[in-house]
Amino acid sequence: MAAPKKSSRAPLARLSALAVWLLAAAVALTAGQAPRVEAVDLLVRGGAIVTMDARRRVIPNGFLAVRGERIVAVGDAAEATRYRAKTILEAGGKAVLPGLINAHTHAPMTLFRGLADDLALQAWLTRFIFPAEAKNVSREMVRAGTRLACLEMIRGGTTCFVDMYYFEGDIAEVTEAAGMRAILGQTVIDFPVPDALTPQLGLENAERLIQKYKVGHPLITPAVAPHAPYTCAPETLAACRALADKHGAPLVTHLAEADTETRTILERYGQRPILHVERLGLLGPRTIAAHVVQIAADEYPILARRGVGIAHCPQSNMKLAAGVAPIPEMLAAGLAVGLGTDGAASNNDLDMFEEMDTAAKLHKVMRRDPTVLPAQAALEMATIGGARAIHMADRIGSLEVGKLADFIIVDVSSPHQLPNYNLYSTLVYATKSGDVETVAVHGKLLMRDRRVLTLDEAAIRRETAAFRTRILESLEAK
Amino acid sequence: MAAPKKSSRAPLARLSALAVWLLAAAVALTAGQAPRVEAVDLLVRGGAIVTMDARRRVIPNGFLAVRGERIVAVGDAAEATRYRAKTILEAGGKAVLPGLINAHTHAPMTLFRGLADDLALQAWLTRFIFPAEAKNVSREMVRAGTRLACLEMIRGGTTCFVDMYYFEGDIAEVTEAAGMRAILGQTVIDFPVPDALTPQLGLENAERLIQKYKVGHPLITPAVAPHAPYTCAPETLAACRALADKHGAPLVTHLAEADTETRTILERYGQRPILHVERLGLLGPRTIAAHVVQIAADEYPILARRGVGIAHCPQSNMKLAAGVAPIPEMLAAGLAVGLGTDGAASNNDLDMFEEMDTAAKLHKVMRRDPTVLPAQAALEMATIGGARAIHMADRIGSLEVGKLADFIIVDVSSPHQLPNYNLYSTLVYATKSGDVETVAVHGKLLMRDRRVLTLDEAAIRRETAAFRTRILESLEAK
Question: How far apart are CA A255 and CA A311, in angstroms?
């Protein structure tokens, strides 16, 4: 379109030329935007969008638009033309899901993966895990183990995890650098541990962590983590509760995992674990309780009333022979239940796809009813249900406008997934962690086409090998 | 080395020149072979050789030499220099295992994967599986489904499977073309099925299959497969036994899967399923019984005495809520137990690594004992134990001189497998089917560095998509 230029024509002709130019410019401007193209940062185009929203909509050929850290549009692929973005992810023929939420793990324990398996619980803990921890857990080890854990979790489609370990401040720095979202619980325990000789020091560590990552940090939510009712005296548990309340922080704990715990707590305090911690005020709307295998009928309403979130860890509970948590009953009672892998020493991986598959199958056989915990319910526990269980359902767990952009793109056309009649079935019963192709958290890509962007895999291999040698030597040296 | 040539020198000098040449030639010849280099067809060099031999040797840095279809040497990598081969597979840092044995599946049912899940058994069978089979099972469908199954199984490290379906002759041709080893049982059942309107016709199909693949075929072992005690009258079962005995063929059957079966058989014949089929002579040293969940204390010795092999299918039994087979008790009773995935409609995959992981964990939690079924025992069920269960332990299941060269090379350095302290733990609790890199059966490579060599993956995708459409349409049309 030529710009108006000085002319020798009459003023009227010049005015009319100007009018033509203005009209043309207006048309050009409109055409350029028509019908109003909005700029976003990230556009996922095509693919089945498994929203996990309240209506559990699955948009067979959809799109997802992200600006900054938030989802700004979800809909049918036809509407995607209204958006332009520098980064476009083509997801045609794939599935787009909310990022998976691992509601219970101990990230650094990846470095103890397979160190000691198939042992009685006491022998496992006292002969291997506790000595290995006492001799090896350091800030450096925790950082290396968390890097390995984040690498594995990102590669398997996990975008958010709930952790509980030592040196949680170091875990926080590594997790933030990896770009993952996490609730990180600093362990408080009555016996001396690598980062605290007393529970008082553990509480101080926890408060320092909370003050550093004040509520509102984009990725890291600091938390207080009393280890368990059998390793923390009533006054320790009460102090943890007070600290969490003082800062409005989550409280993460193991609860009612094994029958040995039930017996111990009954003996010591005259009550079962859930009633015992209820009496101490440990249960509340920011509490995340892992395992909860040993639950009596009268304890469901307590957990429901208190708004406690449950982290169900089926594979860990199976491998350590803790028992099977009554998840269908918990869901029927309206409890918020998420899924966790537990640490790699007791699973031995951080694979949420296997956890979903196992959960769905385990509860069917326990109740001799194949209709129990269908595929969709298992996927819920790893997404929106998990978000509820960790008290973050207002921000994550589903693909909806306004939520944080934590999503994954999953191949659903591998030979082991075909023919793919029902997407929920395909995702829960046939999809493997290796089918995850792309992972985004807080609007930022962490993995694209199976290449992890935020971690140096070669360096992680090297430091893992070095720690392997060191850990083996530490166990040989008495 | 120069050849002797006509010379003008004296005869003695010429003779001495000849002697020198002969000596030099002898030295050259010896040097070329020193210290006797043997020609083989395939050499796997480096890698931890998990032999699964009687001593369960694991050679940390070993080699495997194959001539024709057999293993001719296994040992320390240092000895590998004694062999030369056109094809050398470098396995340094990886694990070399006997090929996995899937002791029970229905290969063509991959095309029904995920068609109907989470339903009560009767609804699942009568509303979906039986109508889908009645309307869709054809020679063409069975071939397409088997191709998809073989692709998935090869990619997951399975080298041998036991099948039971219709048109088993077509399954045999596809399996042979894919290069896999299999025991293929032609189904005999009392109601009309796609390849036989009567059990008599089923028996004729079975005999035709046996006559075509006479005992001794390199890959395919034909078998008779009476479906189950509740779908076959006593005379049908007896006729199956007679046919199998006539030809020395294996007999494959479902046995004691669900409590509904136990009730039905008790009602009809006044005995529990195992005793019922024992009375009919169905149990013998070539019988492979799938599931065997419902077993009473007095039935163990019967199965042991008869030399029956058991195909344990934990994931299918969980998903269909059949129950949990008492595997630790069976192993303690000396029974031969293998692992099976069952068909993809009830699992929903053919993944033996997941099956091992699930088996090891399931029996721990059932007995509240984490020492039950350790990793090595789970791997045994998928290799040498599986070979015993399918009555082929003299030929496959371990890496030993004289056995058939069915082996797989598995990556053990993926992030989800590190640091790898104990190879059995790594393989059972942390390895995924996607970690399998190379697969050989009968001395022939079927997959190399994750590229399947014997099947056309693109063509399989196309035909799977076509059958998907056809199957969905068949179910919509009433």
Answer: 10
Question: Which residue positions in chain A have pLDDT lower than 50?
Answer: 1-9, 32-33
Say whether A468 and B315 touch across the interface (CB within 8 A).
no
Q: What single DSSP character describes residue A194?
A: T
- Per-residue DSSP letter, B404: B
Across B7-24, average pLDDT: 55
pLDDT digits (tens, 9 = 90+) for A213-268: 986 899 999 999 999 999 999 999 999 999 999 999 999 999 999 999 999 999 99
Around Cβ A191, how many Cβ atoms within 10 Å?
12
- Find the mean pLDDT for residues B268-273: 97
163-192 of B, contacting A, C-beta below 8 A: none
Residue A162 tokens read as 């709930």
pLDDT single digits (tens) B154-163: 999 999 999 9
Amino acid making up residue B463 = E
Is the CB of A432 less than 8 angstroms away from the CB of B429? no
Please, which residues 55-114 of chain B have a Cβ atom closer than 8 Å to chain A? 110-111, 113-114
Report the C-alpha gap between A377 and A404 in whole angstroms.
22
B266 inside 8 A of chain A by CB:
no
A349/B124 touch (CB, cutoff 8 Å), yes or no: no
A114 vs B425: CB contact, 8 Å cut-off? yes
For residues A71 and A65, the answer to whether their CB atoms sit within 8 Å is yes
Could you tell me how many CB contacts below 8 A there are between chain A and chain B? 205
Between residues B3 and A327, the one the model is more confident about = A327
Domains defined for chain A, CATH in brackets? 102-391 (3.20.20.140)
Tens-place pLDDT, residues B341-379:
999 999 999 999 999 999 999 999 999 999 999 999 999
| Tally of residues, chain A | 478
Q: A434 vs B432: CB contact, 8 Å cut-off? A: yes
Q: Are A223 and A251 in contact (CB under 8 A)?
A: yes
- ipTM value, please give it: 0.92
> In the numeric block, which tokens belong to residue B379?
């791997």
Q: What is the predicted pLDDT for the residue at B216?
A: 81
